[in-house]
Design a protein that fits this description.
Shape: globular
Structural class: mainly alpha
Number of strands: 0
Helix content: 40-55%
Order of helices and strands: HHHH
Number of helices: 4
Oligomer: single chain
Radius of gyration: 16 Å
CATH class: Mainly Alpha
Distance between the termini: 42 Å
CATH topology: Multidrug-efflux Transporter Regulator, Chain: A, Domain 2
Largest sheet: none
Number of domains: 1
């Protein structure tokens, strides 16, 4: 296939929960069970009570992909990746506060 003429299609997702469990798993190249484990350890917090009703946001997709990358690159368990994600989020929040205070660290 000629990569220069390849057509990509996709959907824009926002902050509202639009991805079902299977859709999120497919977007991550993972099994649904892996997504269920991410919910169990608190990495993802879907809207809906039952797994069949779960809906995920674009932020969940980004987070799940980060976990997948941590697992792939560092061999991290889901639990270790969850801690890493929390720490990375905390760093981002602290940097935003520093920037807001006029103390740019970069």
């Amino acid at each position: 296939m000629d990569m220069e003429n390849e057509i990509l299609t996709g959907s824009v997702i926002g902050d509202e929960g639009v991805l079902a469990l299977e859709e999120l798993a497919r977007a991550c190249g993972a099994e649904a069970q892996w997504i269920i484990e991410l919910v169990a350890v608190g990495v993802l917090a879907p809207q809906g009570r039952e797994t069949s009703d779960w809906r995920f946001r674009s932020a969940d997709l980004t987070c799940a992909r980060r976990v997948a990358r941590l697992q792939r690159d560092f061999g991290a368990t889901i639990e270790a990746a969850a801690v890493m994600i929390d720490l990375l989020d905390e760093i981002e929040q602290l940097r935003a506060r520093l920037k807001q205070a006029g103390l740019d660290v970069d």
